[in-house]
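Task: sequence in, structure out. Protein: Glutamate dehydrogenase.
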Amino acid sequence: MMAVKRRSSHDVLLSTALENFYNAAEEMGLEDDLIEILSRSERRVCVSIPVEMDDGTVRVFDGYRVVHSSALGPAKGGIRFHPQVSLDETEALAFMMTWKCSLAGIPYGGGKGGVCCDPLELSLKEKERITRTFAARIEPFVGAWSDVPAPDVNTGPQEMVWFMDTISKIRGHLDPAVFTGKPVSLWGSKGRNAATGLGVATCALELLRVMGKDPKTATAAVQGFGNVGSFTAKFLHDAGVKVVAICDITGTYYCKDGIDVNKAMAHTQSNPKKLLEGYTQPGLEKRGPEEVLFLDVDVLLPCAMEGTLNKTNADKVKAKYIVEGANGPLTPEADEILKSKGIPIVPDFLANSGGVIGSYFEWCQNLAGFFWSEEEYNQRLVTIMKSNFQRVWEYSKEKNVLMRRAAFMVAIKRVADAVKMRGVFL
Ligand code: GLU
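Result:
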């Protein structure tokens, strides 16, 4: 067979994800036909979403649902609402979900969805109408054994209930296992809402451990204070790490004695836009939103959007370690710059896999109709995260590669073996 012709894209996230995949696949000596199969998505669904706005006008939004691979099981991955959503971005995120689920050791393939919209400009009713119309449009493609969506940027338990309710009404029966990330009162799991942050914090603590640093003397800066960033900060704080800065679009909130994370979380809960605006505590300094990235801390945790650290700002990073809470927070240029500074980086699809592992627990509970305690849920999650971190850490030492490459190699192997055993058909 001729050498594989590499796919590329104008979308930074997609081209980066593909490049990382091709490089790892080549280093492993993966067969060309497997590289060809795994570099493409199985299914890309694009829909229009006409919605009547509160003022009576009609706006049409674009929505996407991509399944990259179903080799290991039903596709799994969130649905985001954001103005940057595009087909290429969704495909990149679906692609990364395949490696995330594989690395996590759970029986899922990779998928992702999104609607291009700005939730900050939408009323609750408008969000509900977008969610339900999108659900109806993608209904033929989702299901507990085909493709199981979940929350992502700007979506949460409420949106998941609207999705589940719409699908259940179309199908004429309750179908709880078709969406994860639901509220505890409606077939959700105790622990799921905090699961991604618990996983990110566990990886950060594991990294400190292998680096020989006592968490009680460590400092951290968390960028982004949505679901992932806020719970990450909370669990680090609970473990004794001093979280000196948190941040959202309204600015960086810095306190050298440590942020009172529980108070900050309560503040965002009572803010109508769930923002930190107006948060205060003794000794607090407010700085620009980017400042959080350049603090002299042990661990920097970018937990917001992709491309946060890029060629324009990566050289200003002073943190000793980076744990990627968001999906794709480093551009390839930033990755190179930070590599040359010798900063260890825990890659996103390992660090933030607590969310999808937690979703797996919820799906199991839904299919069994039997729920676990929050304690059991968290214990199982932490055990899996620790052993996954350990596996990637050891593999990176054994192969003398960085953690991102090691994680790709472990993840690709499991999916490639599944494709080989199942054979090429459809
Ligand atoms: N949106 C999360 C992620 O990017 C969770 C996905 C899921 O639970 O399916 O991993």
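Residues 76-78, 100, 150-152, 180, 327, 352, 355-356, 359 surround glutamic acid (CB under 6 Å).
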